[in-house]
Amino acid sequence: MKHKSPQTILTKPVNHLYMLLATAGALSFLGLIMVFSASSIHAIDTRGSALSIVIRQFLFLVASIPIAIYLSKLSTKNWERIGKYGFIVSIIILGILLIPGVGKTVHGNTNWINLRFFDVQPSEFAKFFMIIWASFQLSRRELKGRFNTNVLKLITPAFIVVLILVMMGNDLGTASVIAMILAGLLFVSGIKMKILGSITAIGAVVFAVLILTSGYRSKRFLVFLNPFAPEDYKDLGWQPAHSLLGLASGGLFGVGLGGSRQKWGNLPEAHTDFIFSVIGEELGLVGTLAVLILIGILVYSIFRIALRAQDPMSRYAASGIGIWIAVQSFLNIGSATSMLPVVGVTLPLVSYGGSALLATLCALGFVVGVALRDPEVRTELIKKRQR
């Protein structure tokens, strides 16, 4: 007779849901505080009010929460209907950017649609829709027992189309995230490591060509190795150099909330791509470690929920969402610490960006729904209500 091993805090299924909700809430709250701190000077200079940027972030957060709650209550059947058309939706919303006069170009990237009161970034939603679409395709293959189906042919061509559309807007950072999501989903689907390694190598070559054929990209790629070099410091080395200066000056406990010196014009995109640097400067090593721990727990809880998913689509999609958040966090923090070239992606739930915040919370709403469909989690929640 087999005895069940005793459950611990980290293995009890309902705790994975609590961990997800707690870390997502903590990161979102910290994000509001740090967006206000990092953006206040820029907001005064450009909009006349220190609160103008953080208010927008707050409004997006308030709007996102009920949407995420609604999505968490959708059934698997409803998600399958959404997944069926996820690729088409992604093509449409990315295609809108290519219409002359519609797409808004910022720092060379045509990645936004200006809706007068706020900008929308379609590629953030395309990430989510492509994960749901690919998960639907993979689950349908599994449920029908078609394990001999070529997974590469099943989902890769659609991802390539999306990547081409994203690169037409010159957004290599977002393209990198989507490519890594594809690689992660192929891995989860059980593809042979030899094939995955070959695909990864081909992808690396393609990205290398894209970098080397663009003078700006190639300089930006190489400058992270030594951003303080005299020939680069006042040009492409400025952002990574001042990001490192901010992190270095924070020490153990930081200079104090609101006390960042780099945000006074020295660090462009302080409230978006480089918010981790401001956290390091103002909250110190303790603050940056806290962010890393929260992101780590969030990703861990997502994957634990995915492992217990009751249906293959939920398992694939929750895994894809975990990959998305983990990869984007890695790229953002790697850029801020000059361990990677500056790729221009935000830190999930923390950086300023209404589209990114809404898309991420919608994705987390999906994962919450997966957890709530777990019989053991439902039983625990019912017991708690009855106490």
Automatic annotation (TrEMBL):
Record membrane topology: Multi-pass membrane protein
Known catalytic reactions: [GlcNAc-(1->4)-Mur2Ac(oyl-L-Ala-gamma-D-Glu-L-Lys-D-Ala-D-Ala)](n)-di-trans,octa-cis-undecaprenyl diphosphate + beta-D-GlcNAc-(1->4)-Mur2Ac(oyl-L-Ala-gamma-D-Glu-L-Lys-D-Ala-D-Ala)-di-trans,octa-cis-undecaprenyl diphosphate = [GlcNAc-(1->4)-Mur2Ac(oyl-L-Ala-gamma-D-Glu-L-Lys-D-Ala-D-Ala)](n+1)-di-trans,octa-cis-undecaprenyl diphosphate + di-trans,octa-cis-undecaprenyl diphosphate + H(+)
Species, as recorded: freshwater metagenome
Assigned GO CC terms: cell division site; plasma membrane
Keyword Protein biosynthesis: no
Pfam families, A to Z: FTSW_RODA_SPOVE (PF01098)
Keyword Cell membrane: yes
GO BP terms in the entry: cell division; cell wall organization; peptidoglycan biosynthetic process; regulation of cell shape
Protein name as catalogued: peptidoglycan glycosyltransferase
Pathway: Cell wall biogenesis; peptidoglycan biosynthesis
Residue stretches spanning the membrane: 53-71, 83-102, 122-139, 151-168, 174-191, 198-216, 283-303, 315-337, 349-372
InterPro entries named among the record's database cross-references: FtsW, FtsW/RodA
